[in-house]
UniProtKB/TrEMBL annotation:
Pfam families, sorted: Oxidored_q2
Family: Belongs to the CPA3 antiporters (TC 2.A.63) subunit C family.
Source organism per UniProt: Anaeromicrobium sediminis
Keyword entries, A-Z: Membrane, Transmembrane, Transmembrane helix
Listed name of the protein: Cation:proton antiporter
Superkingdom of origin: Bacteria
Topology of the protein relative to the lipid bilayer: Multi-pass membrane protein
Coiled coil region boundaries: none
Major subcellular site: membrane
Subcellular location field: Membrane
């Protein structure tokens, strides 16, 4: 139990991931599924940024000496991940708009009934 309270960033990210995964699995609304996926993305970003941070070190901006900096690779990867997540979200929302125009609903079970599946 002590490790859960000392590693609160990791604990928070696991809880967020669980909330997002639950939303992704249990809801039939496509918008709610996209929100759940975004919550899962945010949890992963939080986890990796928390793992990349070293307490007491500076940001990787050279100010004289090169010692004592945080590793910039996790932050750079998460920045790339954020761009990819925003792009995927925009694409999924565009597909959702197309589905709504075609079927008049964003509920997956109703769309499946209309298609005869």
């Amino acid at each position: 139990m002590k490790s859960l309270t000392t590693n609160y960033y990791e604990t928070g990210s696991i809880i967020l991931f669980g909330i997002g995964f639950t939303m992704l699995l249990l809801h039939n609304n496509i918008i709610k599924k996209i929100i759940g996926m975004n919550i899962m993305d945010t949890a992963i970003f939080l986890f990796f940024i928390a793992k990349g941070y070293v307490h007491g070190k500076d940001a990787p901006i050279i100010r004289g000496t090169a010692a004592g900096y945080i590793d910039p690779v996790p932050s750079a990867l998460m920045l790339t991940g954020i761009v990819v997540a925003v792009s995927v979200t925009a694409f999924l929302l565009a597909l959702t708009v197309r589905l709504y125009k075609a079927y008049g609903t964003v509920e997956l079970d109703e769309i499946m009934k209309m298609r005869g599946d």
